[in-house]
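User: Now give one protein:

AI:
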Amino acid sequence: MDNNIEKAVRVLVVDDEPVLLKALEALLTKKGHQVTALDSPITATQRLAAEDFDVALLDVKMPDLSGLELLTAVKHRRPEVEVIMMTGHATVETALAAVKAGAYDYLTKPFDDVELVARAVAKAAERKALFDRNRALETALREKEGAPPADGLVGNSGAMRDVTRMIDAVAYSAATVLVQGESGTGKELVARALHAKSPRRSQPFVALNCGALTETLLESELFGHVKGAFTGAQRDQKGLFDAADGGTIFLDEIGDIPPATQVRLLRVLQEGEVKRVGSAESIKVDVRVIAATHRDLPKLVKAGKFREDLFYRLNVIAIPLPPLRERIEDVPLLAHHFLRRYTDRLAKKVKTLSPEAIELLCGYRWPGNVRELENAIERAVVLCRGESITPVDLPPAISGRTAPLIREAPAPGDDAGWLSMSYAAAKEQSLRRFEKTYVEALMRACDNNISAAARKAGMDRSNFKRVLRKYRTDVEGDAGDDAPEAPPRASA
């Protein structure tokens, strides 16, 4: 039997209700799990920095940090951890936000049967074990084939050759680099390639998505904090600049950091010193900073939303990363690269892409860039029943088909339709129908203003856009908060 199955499942439970916390700890311990039960979400972020977990069980309503904010922190620090959310105030909007932020399951309190919790944890643990096995296989395959650290940075177009030459030219410098490009173009791959080719290659590479955290969490993550700096800070905590000392730190979505954090970051770049939150003591660090953004920073500077002095500190060396639509000649190479990756990962015997499929891929505009292409190929590998991917295996947006590959959920009252589907399939299709109907109605009500719609939905703007992109292909870039969006396309 696989070692991942035999070992005790490591479960993190976070809830500010002492009685329920103790009950869950006792239940899961009885099931043979290794349980860490905490009543503070701030303490939980600290434990996540120091320990590995398989499953996290989080309450939605907590002081200092909400469960959804903690979910974001968990997925940032430990993306492989399967998260189950719990709430006594269930709403469709909260459930949708949790699923979109990466939650595996969503449970409503009070529990009719505590065994439901135990079963949910067991299923999440099984999924985590599968993830661990796949990652081990992928690592073994990469070592066997000798794949380079930046093997995802694929392309022979003139634009990508320029990027590669720029990486080679500046890798040995300690100068700050600003990687500019749309979402999904591979900015972190550029950062990793710079680090791998630099004299710092044997030292840490630390990455942080600055747009994924609240201001309090962001400053604590970057600079660390001392005991008592804020509620729940029960011990000193090093920040990522400390962790990256001697190496490289990659700050993705740098355009999203709040003004106060911009001031602290400027000091680090100017003085090479870090002050932990709540401390007056400065700590010297030797870190190369690579920043990235999909935003127009000069425009944000003019609007007073980004410090001009920080922009110039970051923009010492700029590496523009072209969108995929401007290097279509790289699409076949990237498609075959991802085909090899996912046939190995999924143990499928798909060998190639048909000429018709390649033609469709090259004729598409790719608003989601390389990430969208990777997702399209992964989907095609999963659905392909032969040895060659054909147009029918590609997403409808690319193939031009109007009929969805996954059927719509049955109408309310259609018992035969519901009973013909598994619980998981019915749940998925219900969510898809709800999402589509909800976002279309919301966008109509808000005159196609994404920011207004996100506020009305009670969602973070970037999370709302991710939901919207599933049903509208005209959502790309990042218009200003008050900019009207293009009118919605007709439903298929």
Summary: Confidence is low (pLDDT under 50) at residues 1-5, 144-151, 402-407, 476-492.
